[in-house]
Every structure is written in structure tokens, then in C-alpha cells.
Write a structure and sequence with these properties.
single chain; 433 residues; Rossmann fold
Length: 433
């Protein structure tokens, strides 16, 4: 069992590992008895499907060029360590179909609009809900907080990052522009992203479904909650030269990704969509058993259910382990961390919460058990929604245009404010006695 070193004053993080290993995150059912190893026919069939999938998702030279030379339509630039970072751009995808302006300083942080000439003690890390996609530089929740606190708040968010990538970015940037306080934002999809070695393995079924170049290979995790396995892997393409050449080579791509955890799930989903789910029954049952979950798959619905269960279980467990690493780093460096849980505007999430269930309850339990400081934006929205005489969908339109609109970022900032102020010492100017 692998656990990070324990920070002073923290509970034993290994408690959650034991809970997961005991099956606390997912129920178990009876299993089918397969041969010790897949049949030659089964193995060959999966290999053929993997090669076909990877062939359909190969980059074009133009896509690779755009990612390396900062001309990709979605604003990504290839980065050997992180997979990608953002570059300056303007995009028409803001509120009321407005053009959004994104600019970055020399450290890669999003440009600060308020009090940028003053020392900064608050750095923020995470995903697109940290970066604040779909609003211009001055409309982020960091800038709302900065205006209120009368001090700068730096934004190191990058769209599409996993919890693990956000952690790596924090290690990288805190060595150059350190802050005493870290806001570590976790979007609900980031748990799954921890397991991605190449985003295309999950995001699309073929290159034809892509809207321009997006999703380079990235640093990732291989985990097994039942055994305690937690292994960190660097970007499979560690240089621009390797990215430009290897990702055009089907043989290389097949060799590196053919047995990938996420690819195996994607192949099963593709078979469900094609009406041939039985081609994946044995492989996914084996994968589930490897992950400590005994199941029996008999139809497309049970296959889809098992895919979701083992994917969610592994992703959430990976996030807990990354949080352990964040806590150890913060303890060693004398920093305080505030975690923020972010969610999309999908009514389904709020309906589930109203019904007393949520897919990430194990993570929430973990944060509470370890007595970590966090803000749960799902609860913040639920509590406000209860005060409105309108449906969930109409309520969410107030705040989302996919990501938060400016009003949504204002909501986010003020949901974070009280907990953040309670941590800050000395207090910011508006809260000095």
C-alpha cells in the first residue's frame, strides 16, 4: 500500500486507502470464471480494435504544427512537461456571443488586472474553471477576489488539466513565483483526466470528430485502489521533436497506447455504440477484476455501468492520492491550501444532489476526514437555488455559458471569499480590525 508522508497535524491518509480497498467506493457482484489469460482470439480482436482506433485518431502534420507553434484554434501550445499550456488569443465564445480576450504574463499566469504591481501571496491552480474559460482577463473569479481583497490573486489555471497536472504545475510555478496560500481547484471531470496518457483516447471516437487540434499526450497516473498501486508517468512525448514525429507514427502510437486503461474503456464504449457490446464483455470483466471489482457483464447496460464504476473509482482514488502529495508539499513549504470543488452547469448534477446522492461523495468524505479546508460549489449552488422560485435549468442559465459567465465568476469568488479570508494572515485590508 502506497501512502504519502503524513503532514503534522493531519489524520492518517491511509484510512481512505483501506476503505477503498475494502470496497467502500463501489459495490461488488458475482464474477464469471475466465481462463487465466485471454484467449488468442480475444486478445487479437482487442489488438485489432486498438490499432483501428489509434489509426483513426492520429494527428495530421498541420495539427502537430499548430500545437507546437501556438496557432491551435483552442489556444493550446505543446509543453514537454505538462502536455500543453495556453497562449495569447481572442475567441468568440463569451457571454452573448462576445469575443473573449486571453493574455498571459512571462510566467504563464493569466494577466492580472487588479493590483498586479503588488506582491502576490495567493496562487491558484487547476483547470478551465480555474483559468476561467469564456470570460476576458478582468472577468475571472480571481480578479473579483483581487478587487475585493485589494491585493492580487494569480491565476495558473489551464483548460483541460487533471488534478495531477494541476499538482505538477503547482510544483513548477511555486519554485519561481511562490505564494503563501494556494487555491487548488478541482473540477468534477478532473478525476478521470488523472488517468489519461493522451486525451484523444477518451474524448473522441475518430479524428473526424475533432474541431481542430487539441489534446496532446500528458503526464498521467496508473492506479489500482484495491492494491494501493499509484505510479506517476511523464508525458510520453518529452520533447517537441518526439511529439512532431512519434505522434504521426502508427506503429509507435500503437506500441505505447494499445494497453492503456482508458483506451480499453473507450473501445468498449465504441462497441456499445456500434451494437456489438459482447466484443468487450471479457476484456472489461478482466479489467474490473484487476481493479478489485468482481462483476458479471451480460448486456450493453451492464457493460456501460461497469465502465463507469471502475473509471470513477480509479479517478477519485487517484485524486485523493494527489491531494496527499499537495498536502505534503504545502506542509514542507509552509503554505496553506484551500481546495475548491467546481462543477458544470448540467442540471443532472444538481438533481442528484437534491436526491441526496453525488458521484464524488468519497472525495468529499475524504476532505472532511482529513480536516482539509475546502469550498464545495455544488452545495453553494444548491443552497442558493433553494431560495429561487424557478427550475434548476433556468437558474443555471444565470451563471453558465458552458463555463461560468462573468456573473458565475462573481458567484464563485464570493462563495470562496469567507473561507479564504479566514485563512489569510495578516488579514487583507478590508478585514483589518
Amino acid at each position: 500500500m502506497i501512502c504519502s508522508s503524513r503532514p503534522v497535524g493531519r489524520r492518517d491518509f491511509c484510512h481512505s486507502v483501506a476503505a477503498v480497498a475494502a470496497g467502500a467506493l463501489v459495490g461488488q457482484t458475482g464474477s464469471r470464471a475466465w481462463a487465466a489469460t485471454p484467449s488468442a482470439k480475444t486478445a487479437a480482436d482487442r489488438d485489432r480494435q486498438a490499432r483501428e482506433f489509434l489509426r483513426d485518431n492520429l494527428y495530421t502534420r498541420e495539427e502537430l504544427h499548430s500545437l507546437i507553434h501556438s496557432t491551435s484554434p483552442h489556444g493550446e501550445t505543446y509543453d514537454p512537461e505538462m502536455g500543453w499550456v495556453h497562449h495569447n488569443r481572442r475567441s468568440r465564445h463569451g457571454v452573448d456571443n462576445s469575443v473573449v480576450t486571453y493574455r498571459y504574463d512571462t510566467s504563464g499566469a493569466r494577466r492580472m488586472m487588479h493590483y498586479g504591481n503588488r506582491p502576490c501571496r495567493i496562487n491558484t491552480y487547476g483547470n478551465s474553471f480555474t483559468h476561467c474559460d469564456q470570460v476576458s482577463d478582468g472577468e475571472t473569479w480571481q480578479e473579483v477576489l483581487a478587487a475585493h481583497l485589494i491585493e492580487p490573486v494569480r491565476n495558473y489555471g489551464v483548460g483541460g488539466y487533471s488534478v495531477y497536472q494541476a499538482y505538477l504545475r503547482m510544483i513548477q510555478e511555486e519554485a519561481q513565483t511562490p505564494g503563501d496560500y494556494v487555491i487548488f481547484n478541482i473540477y468534477y471531470d478532473d478525476h478521470y483526466r488523472n488517468l489519461h496518457s493522451w486525451r484523444f483516447l477518451r474524448a473522441v471516437s475518430s479524428a473526424a470528430e475533432r474541431d481542430g487540434a487539441w489534446g496532446p499526450p500528458l503526464p498521467f497516473l496508473k492506479v489500482n485502489p484495491s492494491t494501493g498501486k499509484f505510479r506517476e508517468y511523464p508525458n510520453p512525448c518529452p520533447t517537441a521533436a518526439s511529439f512532431a514525429s512519434d505522434m504521426l507514427d502508427l506503429d509507435w502510437v500503437y506500441k505505447v497506447f494499445k494497453d492503456d486503461f482508458v483506451l480499453r474503456l473507450s473501445l468498449a464504449r465504441r462497441n456499445i455504440k456500434a451494437g456489438i457490446p459482447q466484443r468487450s464483455y471479457e476484456d472489461i470483466e478482466r479489467l474490473a477484476q484487476e481493479q478489485g471489482v468482481d462483476v458479471q457483464i451480460d448486456d450493453a447496460d451492464s457493460l456501460a455501468s461497469v465502465i463507469h464504476r471502475i473509471y470513477t473509482r480509479a479517478g477519485l482514488w487517484a485524486s485523493m492520492r494527489v491531494i496527499e502529495k499537495v498536502e505534503k508539499f504545502a506542509h514542507d513549504q509552509g503554505k496553506k491550501v484551500l481546495y475548491v470543488l467546481s462543477y458544470s452547469g448540467a442540471p443532472r448534477l444538481y438533481t442528484e444532489l437534491a436526491e441526496g446522492r453525488r458521484f464524488d461523495q468519497p472525495l468529499v468524505d475524504f476532505l472532511q476526514q482529513q480536516q482539509l479546508d475546502y469550498v464545495d460549489l455544488l452545495l453553494a449552488h444548491r443552497d442558493e437555488l433553494a431560495r429561487f422560485n424557478e427550475g434548476t435549468a433556468e437558474y443555471l442559465k444565470r451563471y453558465y455559458v458552458g463555463h461560468y459567465n462573468p456573473r458565475g465568476n462573481f458567484f464563485c469568488a464570493y462563495a470562496i471569499k469567507d473561507k479564504l479570508v479566514s485563512l489569510l494572515e495578516p488579514k487583507p485590508v478590508p478585514y483589518v480590525p
